[in-house]
Automatic annotation (TrEMBL):
Signal peptide: none annotated. The keyword ATP-binding applies. It comes from marine metagenome. GO terms for molecular function: ATP binding. Keywords: ATP-binding, Nucleotide-binding. This is GHMP kinase N-terminal domain-containing protein. Residues 91-146 form the GHMP kinase N-terminal domain.
């Protein structure tokens, strides 16, 4: 939040990009989600022109990356596989766009032998991800995806310097994802947040100060691997987010999330909506494997889908 440090989990879900030559006299893009091929060319301004069918948002990162790197593929087949970010045909809010931004820059760098440095690749991934979201968002999800080291701590100052801190996930802390039917726009949430912050400056400054102290405590708890303290402090953090949500009308806590919070409370389990885009994913976190097993059974009986995150 603002200048505060965020602790972000890089989940087990991965996207992949492959680039290879083929014997056709044109470029092809293959989308695993659509299971379709799209013919394209690249003009002298490094703009992608889709010859017949336009993959729309599914081809966005190819267009952005080619323009960013100023490369001109010829007779290339570029494949993007994001199947791990989908469940039963529905996209899960796990930061797939950040993942694609990271891997497509690296894939094009390798294919064209550009020999970019690690910091250059990360910066270009941040650039195209920002363009894809109309420059909304912090870019922390891109850094987390690029770092690919499990758990990272990062804030806006560190992000601007292309830095992060790797953390260790406590051995007695368990996490699962719960898929809900609700989805929302990250961009709209950020717009509401910025408007609320400008309209309620006194409230925001006080809350920001309190959250800043809390985030420092959470960071210390991670360093000491104190799972009980982590859960206690995350509960306090959730309370602050609820206040922010109600004051700014952000729409973070849908009716389904509220129901899951009540179910989790009755099972003495921590639950929160995910910080990733889309609003459709919830996180179940506990340091009791027994409680987790019982709660997951309860969720299954209530027809909620569970996914592994690490």
């Amino acid at each position: 939040m603002e200048g505060g440090s965020a602790i972000i989990l890089s989940t087990k879900q991965r996207s992949s990009v492959s680039i290879e030559n083929h014997d056709k006299p044109y470029n092809l893009f293959y989308s695993s989600v659509l299971d379709q091929y799209f013919e394209f060319s690249v003009n002298n301004n490094f703009k992608v022109d889709w010859v017949e069918n336009d993959p729309q948002s599914f081809g966005l990162f190819i267009s952005l990356a080619i323009c960013e790197l100023k490369v001109k593929p010829s007779k290339a087949l570029i494949s993007i596989d994001t199947n791990e970010f989908y469940s039963n045909g529905k996209k899960i809010g796990l930061g797939s766009s950040a993942s694609i931004a990271s891997v497509i820059i690296s894939a094009l760098d390798e294919y064209f032998n550009l020999q970019l440095s690690e910091s250059e690749k990360l910066q270009k991934a941040l650039n195209i991800h920002a363009l894809s979201q109309d420059n909304f968002g912090s870019g922390l999800d891109v850094i987390t995806s690029y770092a690919d080291c499990g758990v990272v701590e990062c804030n806006l100052k560190m992000a601007n310097e292309l830095k992060w801190r790797s953390l260790k996930w406590p051995s007695d802390l368990y996490i699962k994802g719960v898929i809900t039917s609700d989805q929302s726009s990250t961009k709209i949430m950020i717009e509401k947040y910025n408007h609320g912050k400008d309209s309620n400056q006194i409230f925001f400054k006080q809350l920001y100060s309190e959250i800043g102290h809390l985030l420092n405590k959470i960071s210390t708890a991670w360093d000491t691997q104190n799972s009980a303290k982590i859960l206690e402090l995350m509960g306090e953090y959730n309370t602050f987010i609820k206040q922010l949500n109600e004051k700014f009308n952000l729409g973070i806590f849908s009716d389904e999330h509220k129901r899951l919070i009540d179910l989790a409370r009755s099972a003495d389990i921590f639950y929160k909506p995910s910080g990733a885009g889309g609003g459709d994913l919830g996180l179940v976190i506990t340091n009791s494997e027994k409680k987790l097993t019982y709660f997951l059974s309860t969720l299954s009986d209530s027809n909620f889908s569970i996914i592994d995150l690490r």
